[in-house]
Design goal:
Blueprint: H1 3-30, H2 37-62, H3 70-87, H4 92-118, H5 124-143, E1 148-149, H6 155-161, E2 163-164, E3 168-169, H7 170-188, H8 190-200, H9 202-207, H10 212-238, E4 240-241, H11 249-259, H12 271-290, H13 297-319, H14 323-340
Antiparallel strand pairs: 1-4, 2-3
Helix pairs in contact: 1-12, 1-13, 2-7, 2-10, 2-11, 2-12, 3-4, 3-5, 3-10, 4-5, 4-10, 6-10, 7-8, 8-10, 8-14, 11-12
């Protein structure tokens, strides 16, 4: 990494480090049990579900889009899997079949998102907002208007409540794996470079031979896949699925993205930012719990997000100097790769 790139990255991370450190120090002063291993594990466990979903949302945000239906998608996929598993006596084969069907539904919805947005030119906000309500409406049809429960010891129960070495929640492992896979796709594959190029300038990306429609479809399908996985592990951890599963989780995902410094206009954002944002949100929730500020959770979250965004905008504007040159180099690289195909 060149010195100027390193300097810009350092400037972008300053407000994040300050915010994290301030919350950490305040928690340490106010509550001694904050430093317990069990509390740290609980913080990471609590952010794992929307951390997984945030990794999927990152693909869509990088191309300049957004998926407002993630929470509904999570709830529907969890409900489909639970119903099929329950009808199959909660056997392993029925559970696997349920997940495959749920994943197929998620991929189909993701493809439709891409089709409506790129081919029919419908704004992503309208498409995903409409899908959100359609999917929420479909959940009672799948569950017959009831919550679906699983018994302890079943395959679904193990998916959500197992612990590695009797200490680390399995949800944390899912989050780490998804984050690593997302990092690899975005940093080590041609598709990842094209995602950044499309988000930086979709028109220019099309001119250099990048298939915007195809890559946009893949981005939305990856997003709905992450929503499906997030919904399944959330419901498995709670041992139930129904109309409230995943409800409003897209809001938590967006908060993690904003606090993590992801540019919602597209073209700029990292997996490390997503992970950091999720952890900050987890720390805030933990702080509110310890301080018995439950009634003021939304107020505290909103205030901190606003402060982080204001500071980030200032530092981001400074760090963008020289980005045009870097963007042209990226477009030249993906153009060469497109011509080689």
């Amino acid at each position: 990494m060149k010195k100027e790139d390193l300097a810009r990255s350092f400037k972008v991370w300053i407000p994040r480090i300050i915010a994290f450190g301030a919350i950490f120090i305040f928690m340490a002063i106010m509550e001694q049990s904050f430093f317990s291993t069990s509390n740290f594990i609980e913080i990471i466990r609590s952010v794992s579900v929307y951390g997984v979903m945030s990794c999927g949302m990152l693909f869509v945000v990088l191309i300049g889009g957004l998926d407002l239906s993630m929470g509904a998608m999570a709830g529907l996929c969890a409900s489909i899997m639970f119903v099929i598993a329950q009808n199959g006596a909660n056997s392993l084969s029925a559970t696997l079949l349920g997940f495959v069907v749920a994943l197929a539904v998620a991929l189909a919805v993701g493809w439709l998102h891409g089709f409506f947005i790129t081919t029919l030119k419908i704004p992503f906000f309208v498409v995903t907002l409409a899908t959100k309500y359609i999917l929420y409406g479909a959940i009672p049809l799948v569950t017959a208007g009831k919550y679906v429960y699983v018994r302890g010891g079943s395959p679904i129960d193990k998916i959500g409540t197992s612990r590695i070495f009797d200490t680390i929640p399995i949800l944390v492992v899912y989050f780490v794996i998804i984050a690593l896979v997302t990092w690899f796709i975005l940093n080590k594959t041609v598709f990842g470079r094209r995602i950044y190029a499309i988000g930086g300038n979709p028109t220019a990306a099309g001119f250099v031979g990048i298939k915007v429609f195809k890559n946009t479809n893949i981005a939305y399908m990856l997003c709905t896949t992450a929503a499906c996985i997030g919904g399944v592990i959330l419901a498995a951890n709670n041992q139930q699925a129904g109309t409230t599963t995943g409800n409003a989780y897209e809001g938590m995902v967006l908060m993690a993205m904003i606090v993590g410094g992801i540019n919602l206009a597209g073209g700029q954002g990292t997996v490390s930012g997503v992970v950091f944002g999720a952890l900050i949100i987890g720390l805030i929730q933990n702080l509110v719990t310890f301080m018995s500020w439950g009634d003021y959770l939304k107020l505290v979250q909103g205030a901190i997000i606003l402060i982080v965004v204001i500071v980030s905008v200032v530092t981001h504007t400074r760090s963008m100097r020289g980005k045009g040159r870097k963007g042209r180099k990226l477009l030249a690289k993906v153009k060469a790769e497109a011509q080689d195909e």
